[in-house]
C-alpha cells in the first residue's frame, strides 16, 4: 500500500466540489494590475479630471455616490 499525497489537481478538485456543495459557483476575473506605471498614470489622470469638475458635476457625483451607498446598505 502506498501512501501518496493527492496531486495538486485532486486537491483543487475536492476544494471546488466542497464549495459547490455549499451553493457557491466559481467565477474568475481579470483585474487591472495596480502595480504598473500605466495604472498609476490612469489614476493620476482621473484625479486631475475630478479636481476640475464644476460644482454641478460634483453634486451629481455626490448623488450617484449616495445612491450606490444606499444600494450597498440593502445587502447587509
Any idea what the shape is?
Answer: elongated
- Please tally the β strands and state the result: 0
On the 0-100 scale, what is the average pLDDT? Answer: 92
Profile the largest sheet. none
Order of helices and strands: HHH
Low-confidence stretches: none
Layout: helices, strands, pairs:
Layout: H1 8-21, H2 37-51, H3 55-74
How does this model look, in words?
- With 76 residues, this protein is mainly alpha-helical.
- It has a domain of 43 residues.
- The protein contains three helices and no strands.
- It is elongated, with a radius of gyration of 23 Å.
- The mean pLDDT is 92.
Question: What brief labels describe this structure?
Answer:
76 residues; mainly alpha; 3 helices
Summarize the structure.
The protein has 76 residues and is an all-alpha fold. It contains three helices and no strands.
Amino acid at each position: 500500500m502506498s501512501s501518496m499525497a493527492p496531486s495538486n489537481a485532486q486537491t483543487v478538485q475536492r476544494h471546488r466540489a466542497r464549495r459547490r456543495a455549499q451553493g457557491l459557483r466559481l467565477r474568475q476575473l481579470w483585474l487591472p494590475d495596480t502595480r504598473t506605471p500605466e495604472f498609476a498614470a490612469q489614476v493620476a489622470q482621473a484625479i486631475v479630471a475630478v479636481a476640475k469638475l464644476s460644482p454641478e458635476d460634483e453634486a451629481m457625483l455626490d448623488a450617484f455616490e449616495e445612491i450606490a451607498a444606499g444600494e450597498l446598505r440593502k445587502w447587509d
